[in-house]
Amino acid sequence: MSMSPLDEIRHSASHILATALLRVFPEAKLDIGPPTETGFYYDVDLDHKLTLDDLAKLEVEMKKVIEENQPFRRKEVSREEAEAIIRSRGQERYKLGRLADIPMGEAISFYENGEFADLCAGTHVRYTKGVKAFKLLSIAGAYHRGDEKNKQLQRIYGTAFASKDDLAQFLERQEQAKLRDHRKLGKDLQLFHIDEDVGQGLILWTPKGAIVRQELQNFIAEELRKQGYSQVFTPHIGKLALYKTSGHFPYYKESQFPAIIEPDQLAQISAEGCGCAEMTSRLEAVSSSFAASINERAGKTVIGEDRIKDPTTLLDGFMLKPMNCPHHIKIFASQPHSYRDLPVRLAEFGTVYRWEQSGELNGMTRV
Questions:
Q1: What's the CA gap between 125 and 332, in Å, rounded?
Q2: What one-character DSSP code corresponds to residue 103?
Q3: 154: number of CA atoms within 13 Å, CB side?
Q4: Which residues have a Cβ under 8 Å from the Cβ of 41 and sit 6 or more positions away?
Q5: Which residue among 161, 225, 286, 354 is least crowded, i.e. fewest CB within 10 A of its CB?
Q6: What is the C-alpha to C-alpha distance for residues 168 and 317, in angstroms, rounded to an integer?
Q7: Which residues, other chains included, contact 117 with Cβ-Cβ below 8 Å and sequence gap of 6+?
Q8: How far is CA 315 from the centre of its chain?
Q9: Residue 303: CB partners within 8 Å, gap ≥ 6?
Q10: What is the pLDDT of residues 222-231, one digit of tens each?
Q11: What is the pTM of this model?
Q12: Can you give the pLDDT at residue 358?
């Protein structure tokens, strides 16, 4: 595996961070530490809640590791040897799972620097002194493997560059970006408000903000009109059958709001003693004819036998729309079209609903 020179620096910085972490917090359990578009991070399981003071301590230790000019050495091992290395270092909690992710027959390698060794495909700079400019930036929570059902780890973010000048320029841009942060501007200019009693990511537009929003919407609407789009409006909800056809339900149910069941139907299934698991199964199920129709259109099996039930047992309901496109497809299908009509361009200033994890929201944006 090869990386760009900058990614090699950042990847190496993440290993140097991990080395420092184990020096300062020997009890730490490590997960992964990849380079990113703007730097690097390392996920760590630690009872101690990390603070900005801890970041300063870790930076001091990282500088020591860099000054030691430790070589990065790649070592290929068997799967059994890899497991033994991980266990000998007390890092089996997460690293064994990462080892299991490597397909059978694929090379397994560790990168060693000083006393530290990490399961890693590479690549890195030759020596730790190759990391000439770095900065630890922040700490955030991160669910193991991005799944909120798993334990939340602590993620340490940092950045690294080939020179101190490049790092200084990046940090200056970050400071300037903070001044232009939409959350700060929204509050200072009284454009919108986020209230915890309403919910994170649910924006309350003030009169001033409503004017700005409307002007932006007018500008976008005019640009879309110039490009041949026709504006439409669609409901905020749709029947489950629509989203079963589009594939949004149940395949993306983890990022959607639960289905809405009509009160009469809910009372009926409650009287039948239907439990939550059975209710979910009946909501997600389809008839054999529905499955056959979808599979035929797809040219492959996308709905398996496990989702097919007797039509008389199926439950219907509604869903807050996660996307506009299924409704727009219904508008297109409502009348015949010739190829001469194409392309048909529809646009909507629609509200869509997603069940976002708290860590995925940043003001009014999704990260």
A1: 55
A2: P
A3: 18
A4: 14, 33, 34, 155, 156, 157, 158
A5: 225
A6: 55
A7: 75, 85, 89, 110, 111
A8: 31
A9: 286, 290, 291, 294, 295
A10: 999 999 999 9
A11: 0.69
A12: 62
Backbone dihedral region of 157: left (phi > 0), alpha (psi from -120 to 50 degrees) or beta? beta
Question: Does CATH place domain 5-165 in 1.10.510.10?
Answer: no
Strand (E) or helix (H) holding 164: helix 164-179
Identify the helix (H) or strand (E) that includes residue 153: strand 152-161
What token pair was written down for 71? 């070589």
213, exposed or middle or buried, with CB in 10 Å at 0-12, 13-18, 19+? middle
Partners of 260 in beta bridges: 318
Question: Helix, strand, coil: what percent of the chain each, to 5?
Answer: 45, 20, 35
243-302 tens-digit pLDDT:
988 888 888 877 888 888 888 887 877 787 777 778 788 888 888 988 898 888 888 898
Q: Are strands 152-161 and 40-45 parallel, antiparallel or unpaired?
A: antiparallel
Count of all residues that appear for the chain in the document? 367
pLDDT 10s digits, 62-120: 999 999 999 999 999 999 999 999 999 999 999 999 999 999 999 999 999 999 999 99
Taking only the tens place, the pLDDT of each residue in 111-141 is: 999 999 999 998 999 999 999 999 999 999 9
Domain boundaries, given as residue ranges, for the chain: 5-165, 192-227, 231-366
Contacts by 150-156 with C-beta closer than 8 Å and gap 24+?
A: 151/45, 153/31, 153/43, 153/44, 153/45, 154/43, 154/44, 154/45, 154/46, 154/49, 154/50, 155/41, 155/42, 155/43, 155/44, 156/17, 156/21, 156/41, 156/42, 156/44, 156/50, 156/55, 156/58
Place of tokens 């900065």: 135
From the candidate CATH numbers 3.40.50.790, 1.20.140.20, 3.30.930.10, 1.10.10.10, the one assigned to the domain spanning 231-366: 3.30.930.10
Local confidence band at 38 (pLDDT 50, 70, 90 cut-offs): very high
Which residues face 347 on adjacent strands? Answer: 231
